[in-house]
Design goal:
heterodimer, A: mainly alpha, elongated
Chain lengths: 225, 118
Protein backbone atom coordinates (compact mmCIF):
# COMPACT_ATOMS: atom_id res chain seq x y z
CA UNK A 1 0.00 0.00 0.00
CA UNK A 2 1.41 3.37 -0.95
CA UNK A 3 -0.45 6.61 -0.51
CA UNK A 4 -0.21 9.20 -3.30
CA UNK A 5 1.77 12.29 -2.30
CA UNK A 6 -0.42 15.31 -1.68
CA UNK A 7 1.33 18.66 -2.07
CA UNK A 8 -1.53 21.17 -2.07
CA UNK A 9 -2.48 20.93 1.61
CA UNK A 10 -2.95 24.01 3.76
CA UNK A 11 -3.30 24.62 7.50
CA UNK A 12 -7.10 24.56 7.25
CA UNK A 13 -6.95 20.98 5.93
CA UNK A 14 -5.50 19.79 9.23
CA UNK A 15 -8.88 19.88 10.96
CA UNK A 16 -10.84 18.23 8.14
CA UNK A 17 -12.49 14.86 8.63
CA UNK A 18 -12.77 12.23 5.94
CA UNK A 19 -16.07 12.16 4.08
CA UNK A 20 -17.27 9.38 1.80
CA UNK A 21 -20.36 9.70 -0.37
CA UNK A 22 -21.80 6.49 1.11
CA UNK A 23 -21.59 8.11 4.54
CA UNK A 24 -19.57 5.18 5.90
CA UNK A 25 -16.16 5.72 7.38
CA UNK A 26 -13.96 3.75 9.74
CA UNK A 27 -13.40 6.65 12.10
CA UNK A 28 -16.20 8.82 13.48
CA UNK A 29 -16.16 12.52 12.61
CA UNK A 30 -15.54 13.42 16.27
CA UNK A 31 -12.53 11.99 18.10
CA UNK A 32 -13.05 9.28 20.69
CA UNK A 33 -13.51 10.34 24.30
CA UNK A 34 -10.81 9.65 26.86
CA UNK A 35 -13.19 7.20 28.55
CA UNK A 36 -13.04 5.07 25.39
CA UNK A 37 -9.29 4.65 25.79
CA UNK A 38 -6.98 2.60 27.93
CA UNK A 39 -4.18 4.20 29.94
CA UNK A 40 -1.83 3.53 27.00
CA UNK A 41 -4.01 5.62 24.67
CA UNK A 42 -5.37 2.64 22.76
CA UNK A 43 -9.07 2.16 22.14
CA UNK A 44 -10.84 0.14 24.79
CA UNK A 45 -12.09 -3.31 23.60
CA UNK A 46 -15.67 -2.32 24.45
CA UNK A 47 -15.40 0.82 22.27
CA UNK A 48 -14.02 -1.30 19.45
CA UNK A 49 -16.78 -3.88 19.72
CA UNK A 50 -19.33 -1.03 19.54
CA UNK A 51 -17.68 0.20 16.34
CA UNK A 52 -17.72 -3.27 14.79
CA UNK A 53 -21.34 -3.79 15.85
CA UNK A 54 -22.26 -0.50 14.17
CA UNK A 55 -21.10 -1.89 10.83
CA UNK A 56 -23.70 -4.64 10.93
CA UNK A 57 -26.57 -2.35 12.04
CA UNK A 58 -29.13 -1.09 9.49
CA UNK A 59 -28.26 2.29 8.02
CA UNK A 60 -29.99 5.33 9.47
CA UNK A 61 -28.87 7.53 6.61
CA UNK A 62 -31.72 8.97 4.56
CA UNK A 63 -29.61 9.05 1.47
CA UNK A 64 -28.91 5.32 1.55
CA UNK A 65 -31.26 3.45 -0.71
CA UNK A 66 -30.89 0.07 0.98
CA UNK A 67 -31.79 -0.59 4.59
CA UNK A 68 -28.47 -2.37 5.21
CA UNK A 69 -25.13 -0.58 5.29
CA UNK A 70 -23.16 -1.13 2.13
CA UNK A 71 -19.95 -2.97 3.07
CA UNK A 72 -16.85 -0.80 3.08
CA UNK A 73 -14.48 -1.73 0.31
CA UNK A 74 -10.73 -2.01 0.89
CA UNK A 75 -10.23 0.90 -1.55
CA UNK A 76 -12.43 3.10 0.63
CA UNK A 77 -10.41 2.14 3.70
CA UNK A 78 -7.11 2.88 1.90
CA UNK A 79 -8.54 6.19 0.76
CA UNK A 80 -9.51 7.09 4.35
CA UNK A 81 -6.13 6.03 5.72
CA UNK A 82 -4.28 8.04 3.04
CA UNK A 83 -6.48 11.06 3.79
CA UNK A 84 -5.31 11.20 7.41
CA UNK A 85 -1.77 10.06 6.62
CA UNK A 86 -1.26 12.93 4.14
CA UNK A 87 -2.38 15.45 6.76
CA UNK A 88 -0.20 13.87 9.42
CA UNK A 89 2.85 14.01 7.10
CA UNK A 90 2.06 17.66 6.32
CA UNK A 91 1.82 18.49 10.04
CA UNK A 92 5.14 16.77 10.82
CA UNK A 93 6.88 18.56 7.94
CA UNK A 94 5.52 21.86 9.20
CA UNK A 95 6.73 21.11 12.76
CA UNK A 96 10.25 20.46 11.48
CA UNK A 97 10.15 23.56 9.22
CA UNK A 98 8.97 25.69 12.14
CA UNK A 99 11.68 24.36 14.45
CA UNK A 100 14.28 25.03 11.75
CA UNK A 101 12.99 28.60 11.39
CA UNK A 102 13.00 29.03 15.16
CA UNK A 103 16.70 28.11 15.09
CA UNK A 104 17.39 30.94 12.63
CA UNK A 105 17.80 34.70 13.27
CA UNK A 106 14.34 35.33 11.76
CA UNK A 107 12.79 33.55 14.75
CA UNK A 108 13.10 36.77 16.75
CA UNK A 109 10.55 38.39 14.45
CA UNK A 110 7.95 35.67 15.04
CA UNK A 111 7.56 35.26 18.80
CA UNK A 112 4.57 32.83 18.91
CA UNK A 113 6.12 29.46 18.02
CA UNK A 114 4.22 27.87 15.13
CA UNK A 115 5.77 24.53 15.98
CA UNK A 116 3.40 24.21 18.97
CA UNK A 117 0.37 24.72 16.72
CA UNK A 118 1.52 22.09 14.20
CA UNK A 119 2.67 19.71 16.93
CA UNK A 120 -0.83 19.74 18.46
CA UNK A 121 -2.34 18.80 15.09
CA UNK A 122 0.34 16.16 14.49
CA UNK A 123 -0.51 14.57 17.86
CA UNK A 124 -4.24 14.54 17.05
CA UNK A 125 -3.68 13.07 13.57
CA UNK A 126 -1.27 10.51 14.98
CA UNK A 127 -3.97 9.45 17.41
CA UNK A 128 -6.52 9.18 14.59
CA UNK A 129 -4.17 7.02 12.52
CA UNK A 130 -3.56 4.74 15.48
CA UNK A 131 -7.34 4.49 16.07
CA UNK A 132 -7.85 3.71 12.39
CA UNK A 133 -5.25 0.94 12.41
CA UNK A 134 -6.64 -0.55 15.60
CA UNK A 135 -10.20 -0.53 14.22
CA UNK A 136 -9.22 -2.11 10.89
CA UNK A 137 -7.22 -4.80 12.64
CA UNK A 138 -10.19 -5.55 14.87
CA UNK A 139 -12.49 -5.73 11.83
CA UNK A 140 -10.05 -8.11 10.07
CA UNK A 141 -9.90 -10.24 13.19
CA UNK A 142 -13.69 -10.34 13.41
CA UNK A 143 -13.95 -11.30 9.73
CA UNK A 144 -11.40 -14.07 10.16
CA UNK A 145 -13.37 -15.46 13.08
CA UNK A 146 -16.44 -15.95 10.88
CA UNK A 147 -16.79 -18.92 8.55
CA UNK A 148 -16.95 -16.67 5.47
CA UNK A 149 -13.78 -16.29 3.37
CA UNK A 150 -11.96 -13.00 3.89
CA UNK A 151 -10.96 -10.83 0.95
CA UNK A 152 -7.16 -11.31 0.45
CA UNK A 153 -6.86 -7.57 -0.24
CA UNK A 154 -8.21 -6.93 3.25
CA UNK A 155 -5.60 -9.21 4.82
CA UNK A 156 -2.82 -7.50 2.80
CA UNK A 157 -4.12 -4.09 3.83
CA UNK A 158 -4.21 -5.15 7.48
CA UNK A 159 -0.62 -6.41 7.23
CA UNK A 160 0.51 -3.13 5.64
CA UNK A 161 -1.18 -1.24 8.43
CA UNK A 162 0.71 -3.34 10.96
CA UNK A 163 3.98 -2.13 9.41
CA UNK A 164 2.69 1.45 9.54
CA UNK A 165 1.77 0.92 13.18
CA UNK A 166 5.38 0.04 13.99
CA UNK A 167 6.60 3.30 12.46
CA UNK A 168 3.89 5.32 14.16
CA UNK A 169 4.74 3.74 17.53
CA UNK A 170 8.34 4.93 17.12
CA UNK A 171 7.16 8.45 16.28
CA UNK A 172 4.75 8.42 19.21
CA UNK A 173 7.59 8.54 21.74
CA UNK A 174 8.85 11.72 20.06
CA UNK A 175 5.71 13.71 19.32
CA UNK A 176 3.73 12.79 22.44
CA UNK A 177 6.53 13.45 24.91
CA UNK A 178 6.52 16.52 27.15
CA UNK A 179 9.87 17.47 25.64
CA UNK A 180 8.67 17.16 22.03
CA UNK A 181 10.68 20.15 20.67
CA UNK A 182 13.84 18.85 22.39
CA UNK A 183 13.21 15.34 21.05
CA UNK A 184 12.63 16.70 17.55
CA UNK A 185 15.76 18.84 17.75
CA UNK A 186 17.63 15.68 18.73
CA UNK A 187 16.33 13.99 15.58
CA UNK A 188 17.35 17.06 13.56
CA UNK A 189 20.83 16.92 15.13
CA UNK A 190 21.08 13.28 14.07
CA UNK A 191 20.04 14.28 10.54
CA UNK A 192 22.57 17.12 10.40
CA UNK A 193 25.29 14.73 11.58
CA UNK A 194 24.32 12.42 8.75
CA UNK A 195 24.68 15.36 6.33
CA UNK A 196 28.09 16.11 7.86
CA UNK A 197 29.25 12.55 7.20
CA UNK A 198 27.99 12.77 3.61
CA UNK A 199 29.89 16.04 3.07
CA UNK A 200 33.00 14.44 4.60
CA UNK A 201 32.81 11.57 2.11
CA UNK A 202 32.52 14.01 -0.80
CA UNK A 203 35.46 16.04 0.55
CA UNK A 204 37.60 12.92 0.71
CA UNK A 205 36.58 11.98 -2.82
CA UNK A 206 37.44 15.42 -4.23
CA UNK A 207 40.72 15.51 -2.30
CA UNK A 208 41.67 12.19 -3.86
CA UNK A 209 40.62 13.39 -7.35
CA UNK A 210 42.65 16.58 -6.95
CA UNK A 211 45.76 14.66 -5.85
CA UNK A 212 45.40 12.38 -8.89
CA UNK A 213 44.88 15.34 -11.25
CA UNK A 214 47.87 17.20 -9.77
CA UNK A 215 50.05 14.07 -10.01
CA UNK A 216 49.09 13.58 -13.64
CA UNK A 217 49.74 17.25 -14.39
CA UNK A 218 53.24 17.11 -12.86
CA UNK A 219 53.95 13.82 -14.65
CA UNK A 220 52.87 15.13 -18.07
CA UNK A 221 54.74 18.41 -17.52
CA UNK A 222 57.94 16.59 -16.51
CA UNK A 223 57.59 14.26 -19.49
CA UNK A 224 57.46 17.31 -21.75
CA UNK A 225 60.93 18.48 -20.61
CA UNK B 1 23.55 12.01 33.12
CA UNK B 2 20.57 14.30 32.45
CA UNK B 3 19.12 14.82 28.95
CA UNK B 4 20.23 18.01 27.18
CA UNK B 5 17.57 20.72 27.10
CA UNK B 6 15.83 21.97 23.96
CA UNK B 7 18.09 25.05 23.90
CA UNK B 8 21.26 22.95 24.09
CA UNK B 9 20.05 20.59 21.36
CA UNK B 10 19.01 23.60 19.25
CA UNK B 11 22.51 25.06 19.62
CA UNK B 12 24.12 21.74 18.63
CA UNK B 13 21.83 21.68 15.58
CA UNK B 14 22.92 25.25 14.69
CA UNK B 15 26.60 24.33 15.01
CA UNK B 16 26.15 21.21 12.90
CA UNK B 17 24.31 23.17 10.22
CA UNK B 18 27.10 25.78 10.14
CA UNK B 19 29.73 23.03 9.82
CA UNK B 20 27.78 21.29 7.04
CA UNK B 21 27.48 24.56 5.09
CA UNK B 22 31.20 25.25 5.62
CA UNK B 23 32.04 21.79 4.29
CA UNK B 24 29.82 22.41 1.27
CA UNK B 25 31.67 25.67 0.64
CA UNK B 26 34.99 23.83 0.88
CA UNK B 27 33.59 21.24 -1.52
CA UNK B 28 32.82 24.05 -3.98
CA UNK B 29 36.45 25.25 -3.77
CA UNK B 30 37.78 21.70 -4.17
CA UNK B 31 35.56 21.05 -7.20
CA UNK B 32 36.73 24.37 -8.69
CA UNK B 33 40.32 23.25 -8.12
CA UNK B 34 39.56 19.95 -9.81
CA UNK B 35 38.11 21.73 -12.84
CA UNK B 36 41.14 24.06 -12.97
CA UNK B 37 43.62 21.16 -12.67
CA UNK B 38 41.77 19.13 -15.31
CA UNK B 39 41.85 22.11 -17.70
CA UNK B 40 45.56 22.64 -17.06
CA UNK B 41 46.16 18.93 -17.61
CA UNK B 42 44.30 19.02 -20.91
CA UNK B 43 46.26 22.08 -22.04
CA UNK B 44 49.55 20.45 -21.02
CA UNK B 45 48.69 17.25 -22.92
CA UNK B 46 47.78 19.28 -26.02
CA UNK B 47 51.05 21.17 -25.73
CA UNK B 48 52.97 17.91 -25.17
CA UNK B 49 51.37 16.34 -28.26
CA UNK B 50 52.26 19.37 -30.31
CA UNK B 51 48.65 20.24 -31.11
CA UNK B 52 48.99 23.67 -29.48
CA UNK B 53 51.97 25.86 -28.76
CA UNK B 54 53.18 26.70 -25.27
CA UNK B 55 52.04 30.30 -25.76
CA UNK B 56 48.46 29.30 -26.68
CA UNK B 57 48.29 26.90 -23.73
CA UNK B 58 49.49 29.69 -21.41
CA UNK B 59 46.84 32.10 -22.76
CA UNK B 60 44.13 29.67 -21.74
CA UNK B 61 45.82 28.53 -18.51
CA UNK B 62 46.35 31.98 -16.98
CA UNK B 63 42.62 32.96 -16.81
CA UNK B 64 41.79 29.54 -15.34
CA UNK B 65 44.38 30.01 -12.60
CA UNK B 66 43.24 33.60 -11.98
CA UNK B 67 39.60 32.52 -11.66
CA UNK B 68 40.52 29.77 -9.21
CA UNK B 69 42.68 32.09 -7.09
CA UNK B 70 39.83 34.64 -7.08
CA UNK B 71 37.34 31.97 -5.91
CA UNK B 72 39.74 30.82 -3.19
CA UNK B 73 40.42 34.31 -1.82
CA UNK B 74 36.79 35.40 -2.13
CA UNK B 75 35.39 32.38 -0.27
CA UNK B 76 38.01 32.51 2.46
CA UNK B 77 37.70 36.28 3.04
CA UNK B 78 33.91 36.19 2.99
CA UNK B 79 33.71 33.42 5.58
CA UNK B 80 36.42 34.88 7.82
CA UNK B 81 35.40 38.53 7.71
CA UNK B 82 31.78 38.99 6.65
CA UNK B 83 29.94 35.77 7.41
CA UNK B 84 28.22 35.51 10.78
CA UNK B 85 29.90 32.92 12.97
CA UNK B 86 26.58 31.57 14.25
CA UNK B 87 24.14 31.71 11.32
CA UNK B 88 25.60 30.73 7.97
CA UNK B 89 23.26 32.88 5.87
CA UNK B 90 23.69 36.05 7.90
CA UNK B 91 26.19 38.75 6.97
CA UNK B 92 28.09 40.88 9.44
CA UNK B 93 29.29 43.77 7.32
CA UNK B 94 31.91 45.93 9.09
CA UNK B 95 30.25 49.06 10.42
CA UNK B 96 31.71 52.13 8.78
CA UNK B 97 30.11 54.80 10.93
CA UNK B 98 32.09 57.71 9.53
CA UNK B 99 30.81 56.97 6.02
CA UNK B 100 27.22 57.33 7.21
CA UNK B 101 27.71 60.65 8.99
CA UNK B 102 25.66 63.42 7.51
CA UNK B 103 27.23 66.65 6.42
CA UNK B 104 27.03 69.37 9.04
CA UNK B 105 24.42 71.92 8.05
CA UNK B 106 24.83 75.56 9.00
CA UNK B 107 22.57 76.60 11.88
CA UNK B 108 19.33 78.24 10.88
CA UNK B 109 18.43 81.57 12.46
CA UNK B 110 16.14 81.09 15.48
CA UNK B 111 13.22 83.03 14.01
CA UNK B 112 13.31 81.11 10.73
CA UNK B 113 12.87 77.67 12.41
CA UNK B 114 9.33 76.35 11.94
CA UNK B 115 7.84 79.85 11.66
CA UNK B 116 7.46 80.97 8.10
CA UNK B 117 7.67 84.70 7.88
CA UNK B 118 4.34 86.48 7.23
Amino acid sequence: MSCPSVTNLTDSDLTQTYYHESGHTILPSASYETTDRTIHGLLHPSALSNVIASFSKPSTSQSAKSTQRAPLSVEDMISEFCFYHARYTYAIQKVVDSLRKEASPDALKTPPPRSVFYLKHAQQLHQRLMDFIQTVQEITQALQNTSQPVDPAMITFSRDLQNQQGKLEQQKSVIHSNQAPAALYKQMVRYSEEKKRRSDNLLHLYTFLNVVALGLLVYVYKAAE
Amino acid sequence: MSEPSADTTKRIYEMNEWTVQNKKDTLFVLSSLFIALSTLLLLTVLWRMGISTGYTAAIYAVPVVIIFVFILINRSQYTNRIRDQRYWNRENRPKNVSALQLALCPKMPQDAQGQPSQ
